[in-house]
């Protein structure tokens, strides 16, 4: 059996580059300012996406095999983090948070699935909904601060109804926005500018951010009354 020296050298270089990427990410996250941390996260995401999607000459930097290993490693990292959050920090109380994690995951999947099928409504509804619900939460919070002794469940009802109304408005605006953007998707034979690889990568990135925001807002809505009650519910 002959030894493919070129393949071995390329593999070693990939491993070294990946380790350098990990240490660079950790170094950036260790900086004091949030701007430096944000720049580090965006740069790290861009490097991985370029390595997966853009070719270097006749071959891609990360082959399908390399990408598969990376996806498995990320999956194991998320599972380990989830177990740590559930059993390590907060005990059995946090088991309900899996539902909120699932909402974020489904939101990201829905955005990307719709976009790849020439439907921008998922991204528009999620983006507009996150903004509107955030404004509703801030508005209700300021309104409640004007009064004392408001029951916990009454405050929760205001938050919930306001968020539902904001979500309904986001759905209507998102549907209208999709109708305006639909021609830019093009066809399967002649894809439009919104189906270019660069735009799709940006959509994937926004899907992750918006999914996290959706999960955070829903966690806040349902977690606030539970924490405020302060008993063994």
Strand order of the largest sheet: 1-2
SSE string: HHEEHHHHH
Helical run tally: 7
**Total strands:** 2
Classify the helix fraction into a percent range.
over 70%
Secondary structural class: mainly alpha
Radius of gyration: 22 Å
Give the tally of structural domains. Answer: 2
- Envelope shape: globular
Q: Main beta sheet, described?
A: 2 strands, antiparallel
Distance between the termini: 65 Å
Low-confidence stretches: none
By oligomeric state, this entry counts as single chain
Chain-wise SSE layout:
Blueprint lengths: L4 H25 L4 H20 L1 E2 L2 E2 L3 H26 L7 H20 L4 H24 L7 H30 L15 H33 L4
Helix pairs in contact: 1-2, 4-5, 4-7, 5-6, 5-7, 6-7
Q: Please, could you describe this protein's structure?
A:
This protein has a two-stranded antiparallel ribbon. It is globular, with a radius of gyration of 22 Å. It is 76% helix and 2% strand. β1 and β2 form a beta hairpin. The model has no long low-confidence stretch (mean pLDDT 82). The protein is mostly helical. It has 2 domains: 89 residues, no CATH class; 142 residues, no CATH class.
